[in-house]
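Let's practice the habit of predicting before peeking. Look at the sequence and jot down your guess about where helices and strands might fall. Then scroll down.
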Amino acid sequence: MKTSFQDAPPDKEKSTYKIEIYFKDNPIPIEDFSKKEGYSEVKNKELLLKKWILRLHRYKYLNYTPGQPTLSSGGIDEVESVDFFFKSDTGLHDILFFKLFQDYHEWNEKYFRESMENFLNQFYELKSEGKDPSTILDQKLPKKSNDQLSLKSMRFHARRPLQQFCLVLYRSDTFPIGLIKEFYRKYCERYFDGFTSEDQSFFDGLKFG
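Done guessing? Here is the structure:
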């Protein structure tokens, strides 16, 4: 019988992200990773982060209520912060992405992402109002259609709108990143001056959301 996602051991080597959870009364953090053994990791890494944050809220790590049961009583001790990391070239999850506290968040400025900032602002606003932050993701994803990746006509006359279109597809998890990149490459080759190093940099940046 397959182990449930919640109980499955972490797949540290293949995980995109790691978190360290710091408790107020314990200086030693606990770790968790974005991929579990026996389960595929969500392709859309920004969606992965959002769902993870919402789970942390659901399980009281980011939803502390004074007087709630502590660990010794079968609950969760008060969390000071949850720190998110991603891999460096060393293969270790040692680059700080951002830190989440009970009522606010802090960025590693070098890796600031506006789309995640918007999500986190919504998250904390709903939390402060006593509302369920999971409603942020209560929106229907666009239906898949091969017409979205059609090369029959020049729908985009510059790289920027083409990149924005590909970002929408990527963030909605509509198509695999490999298929989106192949469409982008062929579009550049057909209608622009080819696929350049600048285009490659655009796709390299998608791993941060």
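How did you do? The radius of gyration is 20 Å.
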